[in-house]
Amino acid sequence: MSIGETLATARQTAGLTISQVSERTRIRASVIRGIEADDFASCGGNFYARGHIRSIAKVVGIDPEPLIREFDRKYGALEPTSAAAAFESERPVKIAEPRSPNWTAAMAVALVLVVLYGIVRVLDGGATDPQTAQPVAQPSRAALPAQSATATPAPDAVAAVPRKNVQLRVKAKRSSWLNVRDEKGRQLFSGLLASGKSMEWTAKKRIYILIGNGGGVELTVNGKKLGSPGTDGQVLRLDFGPGDPEGT
């Protein structure tokens, strides 16, 4: 049987509906239906597809590893690289240093604006005849409620506030080497995460992580458990933003 057929059969044997599996894994029902039909396009990439397969298999009570190996055989596994080569090529993300504001230029511009404003006021005052000046038309009382009503936005028009940061949690099933940086290239962690230990980091825009043992850790991104991102001994480079992962 294919990966999707195996998961569907195991789910039915366990007496679970797609909705129940969706609630327990926090994967959309439409994504689960696609996986059971061997359509992994909606997973958002092979990395997320492996995580979804692993999560669904655990819920329906079967070993996910044979399915992961079959997925890698059919759709291609990430090419393993040596840890030494990966570590040598590690470079911090270059971010342009913010320039300090030019306060002298800003004050000069502000002074020019003040002088121009004063000249305009003087010219306007001299050109106006107090006896012939027309009074400014005042809005009628009847028009005021309509203006107030249009100026007040409806509560439903307020847009939803998007997530402003990204959170990454790593739990070590086996001791694994990690290197974690934020979008500015600042190192958040570098070293060995001991078996059974876990760590969590938060960044504003993006988190970059280098993992020395893809099968020895479990990832949780923005509250979504993704499981192990790779196999034992596999070196992985991953990055996540506030909108990741797909399928939540």
TrEMBL record:
Any one GO MF annotation of this record: DNA binding
Start and end residues of each Cytoskeleton protein RodZ-like C-terminal domain: 170-238
Biased composition, class Low complexity, residue ranges: 149-158
Organism superkingdom: Bacteria
Pfam families: HTH_25, RodZ_C
Region annotation Disordered: where it falls in the sequence: 130-158
InterPro entries in alphabetical order: Bact_Cytoskel_RodZ (IPR050400), Lambda_DNA-bd_dom_sf (IPR010982), RodZ-like_C (IPR025194)
PANTHER family: CYTOSKELETON PROTEIN RODZ, PTHR34475
Protein name: Cytoskeleton protein RodZ-like C-terminal domain-containing protein
Native organism: Thermomonospora curvata (strain ATCC 19995 / DSM 43183 / JCM 3096 / KCTC 9072 / NBRC 15933 / NCIMB 10081 / Henssen B9)
